[in-house]
């Protein structure tokens, strides 16, 4: 909806994963609202999958480990993020150096659970080593949780090492409170999508937010690529 001057206005309902909202996206939405004072945002912070149509949402931001398609929805890729293994600096200093996956033996871990009810006592992390071979690390997490902020906080506190998206760990890595482990080992890559019901006929306010998010993620992706290059 527009006002008489063509300015976006109205309410936009969207869902956002908690880890992104409390991290990189936390400052983006206030910036958007200051630019568009006649727009209201209603944000559902959740790590559960939402039904855009039945939940009456205009947009959803999703982070998926697998490519996703849906004939009823338009999906726009915002970012590709690497999963990286991190620890706080004190725990990282105690780990054996140069021993590859074997350095994780008996090291406490923290895991993000992917299911709604996922009571596994043993978790598995798969890595591709610098030699191209596949490596598997089975472990019993000290804590597992379907909340990225909770897992990140546990890692910062020294509960264990954990596997999280680099987009979530970027600030801790820049400030030295987190240390990346096994940088020569590659893990899975996650895709962040912007999902909506139609590419045409979107209300102006929604279309404006879509364009704003695409542009901000373009800037953010460039910064992340710079961080990755510095880490090599």
TrEMBL record:
SUPFAM superfamilies in UniProt: Periplasmic binding protein-like II
Keyword DNA-binding: yes
GO biological process: DNA-templated transcription
Source domain of life: Bacteria
Keyword DNA-binding belongs to the record: yes
InterPro entries the UniProt entry points to: LysR-type_TF_proteobact-type, LysR_subst-bd
Molecular function per GO: DNA-binding transcription factor activity; sequence-specific DNA binding
Domain called LysR substrate-binding: residue spans: 6-217
UniProt keyword annotations, A-Z: DNA-binding
Family: Belongs to the LysR transcriptional regulatory family.
PANTHER family xref list: HTH-TYPE TRANSCRIPTIONAL REGULATOR, TRANSCRIPTIONAL REGULATOR, LYSR FAMILY
Name this protein carries in UniProt: DNA-binding transcriptional LysR family regulator
Organism of this sequence: Rhizobium metallidurans
């Amino acid at each position: 909806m527009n006002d008489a001057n063509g300015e976006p206005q109205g309410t936009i309902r969207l869902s956002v994963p908690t880890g992104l909202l409390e991290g990189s996206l936390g400052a983006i939405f206030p910036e958007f609202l200051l630019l568009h004072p006649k727009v209201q945002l209603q944000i559902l912070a959740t790590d559960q999958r939402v039904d855009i149509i039945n939940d009456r949402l205009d947009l959803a931001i999703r982070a998926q480990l697998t490519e996703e398609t849906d004939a009823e929805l338009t999906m726009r890729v915002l970012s590709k993020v690497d999963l990286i293994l991190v620890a706080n600096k004190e725990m990282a200093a105690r780990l054996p150096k140069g021993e590859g996956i074997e350095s994780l033996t008996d090291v406490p871990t923290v895991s993000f659970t992917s299911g709604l009810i996922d009571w596994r006592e043993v978790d598995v992390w798969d890595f591709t080593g610098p030699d191209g071979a596949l490596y598997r690390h089975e472990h019993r997490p000290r804590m597992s949780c379907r909340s990225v902020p909770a897992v990140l906080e546990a890692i910062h506190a020294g509960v264990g090492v954990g596997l999280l998206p680099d987009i979530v760990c970027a600030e801790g890595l820049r400030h030295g409170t987190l240390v990346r482990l096994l940088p020569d080992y590659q893990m899975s890559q996650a895709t962040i999508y912007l999902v909506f019901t139609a590419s045409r006929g979107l209300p102006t306010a929604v279309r404006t937010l879509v364009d704003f998010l695409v542009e901000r993620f373009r800037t953010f992706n460039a910064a992340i690529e710079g961080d990755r290059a510095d880490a090599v």
